[in-house]
Amino acid sequence: EIRRQKIPSNASDIARSLIGAGADVRAAAWMYGEWWDPLPMLTSSAHPKEAGVFEDLVAVFAEAMAADN
Fold first, then answer.
1. pTM of this structure
2. What's the CA dihedral at 36, 40, 41, 42 to 10 degrees?
3. Tens-digit pLDDT profile for residues 26-54
């Protein structure tokens, strides 16, 4: 799994573009035997942290989720 997880340096820009185009920031995916929302999956992953984009990605999702309320 680790070798397939490639995090681009512009991940926050990509996330903003997708969210701006209507992507659902609360869309759940079936992983590891249960349903997960994107933010918990992001915050539990070491890959964005190692790529140096973690804080920006969390901010993008938090901002979008706050605007979605």
1. 0.83
2. 150
3. 999 998 899 999 899 899 888 899 999 99
